[in-house]
Amino acid sequence: MLRVAAVKSPKIKKIENSPPASPPPSPVQLARAEENRIIALAKLHQSRTQGLFVNVGPSWMKVLEPEIKKEYFQSLCKFIASERSKHTIYPPTDEVFSWTRMCTLNEVRLLILIQFLFFSVGLCFSVKPGVQRPPSLANMYQELSKDIPEFKSPDHGCLTGWASQGVLLLNACLTVRASQANSHKDKGWEKLTDAVIKWLNSNRSGLVFILWGAYAQKKGSFIDQKKHCVLKGVHPSPLSAHRGFFGCHHFSKCNDYLVQQNKKPIDWNMLPAELMKENINIQN
């Protein structure tokens, strides 16, 4: 009699339940992670630039970081460090890049450019509360009063209210030796601020560029006037304002163009006497 071998049933492996997949990070978590990354990066650059590249608005890092790695910026760092060891230099180190904190990259609507820094803050034409407003700014207020009927001239020169609305108040040179205007000319700052203007020109559209004076107009000569509104005119300095600055209507022309681009116009009256809170949004 034949014996039939028993067939063993194959062992069925017990399938264990896989752990549930982790949910993707939320926008808030991603923003926090990016902010932490940028803060760490900024600390690294601070040590590599002899303390010059500090308190930089996070949104501007992608524009400025490629520049600070270049040889010209390293030379600039050495120059500024030497200058601060021997002279009084304005603005203080923590205010050199205040324009990047007051006006985030994604919110820029208007850029006003001047040749060099006169005063001890990082916003062109602006002074701290309690400091007498400069003559050029007084002339700007005078033109505003005629150009914008509802404008009321304040008794101070603090312009952080404009900066907080997307007005980039940019000096071509970001530092200066006390009482020696243009003393830091041709040391490297011009290359950095050129890079800022070129980035805005190439990567944004529908911006307003106000270029007062021959220097500013030459520096901004490459701006694409098919993409942006470029307003050129005489500098508001008392030495030249009477030659065409008064009556230029650049402030109303700026707002007319912004409205045409479906952008919010500048509230020129928004000039609180106290410093506005810095805007450090990391959005691009």
Topology:
Blueprint: H1 27-48, H2 61-68, H3 71-86, E1 89-90, H4 98-102, E2 110-114, H5 135-147, H6 160-163, E3 167-171, E4 176-177, H7 189-203, E5 208-212, H8 214-219, E6 229-233, H9 250-260
Helix pairs in contact: 2-7
Structure in words:
With 284 residues, this protein is α/β, with parallel strands linked by helices. It has a domain at 91-260: Uracil-DNA glycosylase-like domain (Uracil-DNA Glycosylase, subunit E). Helices cover 35% and strands 8% of the residues. It has nine helices and six strands, in the order αααβαβααββαβαβα. The protein has helices at residues 27-48, 61-68, 71-86, 98-102, 135-147, 160-163, 189-203, 214-219, 250-260, and strands at 89-90, 110-114, 167-171, 176-177, 208-212, 229-233. The chain has a four-stranded parallel β-sheet with strand order 3-2-5-6. Strands 1-4 form a two-stranded antiparallel ribbon. It is globular. The chain starts with 26 loop residues before the first helix and ends in a 24-residue tail after the last helix. Mean pLDDT is 87; it is low at 280-284.
